[in-house]
What we know:
By secondary structure, the chain is an alpha/beta fold. The chain has helices at about 10-20, 25-40, 45-55, 60-70, 80-85, 90-95, 145-155, 175-180, 190-205, 255-260, 290-300, 310-320, 325-345, 380-395, 400-405, 445-455, 460-470, 475-490; strands at about 100, 105-110, 110-115, 120-125, 160-165, 180-190, 210-215, 225-230, 265-280, 300-310, 350-355, 365-370, 405-410, 415-420, 425-435, 440-445, 455-460, 495-500.
Amino acid sequence: MTAYPLADSALVDALGNALRAADFSSDGIDGLLGDQAGGALLNGTWWPALRATRRVPADKQALATLVRLFLLGSTEPESEVEAAFAGVAVDALVDGGVLTRDEDGIRALLDIRPHGSDDSDYLVVADQDASMRPGAVAHDHVLGIGGASMSLAQAVIRTPAARALDLGTGCGVQALHMNGHCGEIVATDTNPRALALAAATARLNGMAWDLREGSLFDPVEGESFDLIVSNPPFVVGTGAQDYIYRDSGIVGDGVSRQLIENAGSHLKPGGIAQMLANWIVYDEDAWDQRVRSWVEASGLDAWVVQRELADPITYVSLWVSDAGESSADAARRGADWLDWFEREGIVGIGMGSVTLRKPAEDRSADVVIEEITAAGQEVTGFEAQAWFARRDFLRTTTDDDLLAARLRTSPVFLESQSLPGDDGWQQVGASVTRPGGPGAVLGVDEVLTALISGCRGEVPLGALITLLAEFHGVDADALTEAAMPSVREAIGRGILFVVE
């Protein structure tokens, strides 16, 4: 066997041809499994998919065998494996680190699976996770497609970029998505095995990336990019590097700090950096203290969104169970980890996304740090791009300009909260929400509700406020002064927008 899997490009090409010949694709697998078994597999229940692969016609047997090998972790008879890989010898796949022989037959060492996007279907190569193999994962385990990698991929702004960096590429998921809108892609990792599998992912999909080994920004010293994307090994711990995919070898949350503070040195003016990060919380009421100091030190525009604040036990349990260690090893590691948290006075770990932009002009940075935990309010590339556009508009637009503009209300919901009282229901609060907009919620009173409702793009904002002032019998100037901060916030949240 070669040092790292799929080192032979000819084998990668032959493997790709065999998989495509068997219709090993998102559509092919969906058709094979059906909606119910396929849905169950996505939710972590594997046995209905296994049942479905045992009930297929002869012309789907090759695909069924591939699904059992790569997606279900099954051991298969060598004769059926040989038939599934048309034109590729099993011995070559064993030597290439794709398959292995045991006493019961052939099983896969790699996780190779289709990954569909809006307009393409790719093949991604990673290591099989702990649920599909015996024992704990290896020190140099290469993580496949997961929730974190997909949330980052969905958050990346997809405007064309001449030069992009995927820092900590792993199996290459982010580079794969960037390939459609980026001219040159540099992908780095500290793990040589990850670079080998990323190279296989690239070749299987007809792509070419500049793959480099090294930590943080070391492999790109002196270089700058239009886009930097990173799903780093951000797990907060003692600095031990038990598993490369999660442990940076840097104590605490140091890897997140270094990435954020140093991103600006590698961004072109106007360039964007987007990453997932974890940060230590010593005081829940000041959860943003550490990450705020990092982004302010960077000098970059920043939108930081905390999606979850995990207590130490929840956080450690997540990562201890992830590696597939024995119960005794997991208990020992978890106890040591919690002891360290306790000694350090850590009460929680913040988890979220960080979107940075290098200002194209000489000005102070625009920094917003907020907690958005509601389902359906995840950061997307479209929302991140629109967020920066709205911040730029508000920074360069005066109140007088806004009062002269015609505003329109986005599709929103008005929600009210009431409590029962002696005279029936008494409203105690109300808010306007833009569905799908991260943090797009604005508390409103009766007057602001009427103002937002009246923004139909027909009359200038100033005239609308004057009409409301006359109706409520208040001074127009006073109402304008009171309303403008809320109007600006509504524009910043995408609840109101200017009609051109």
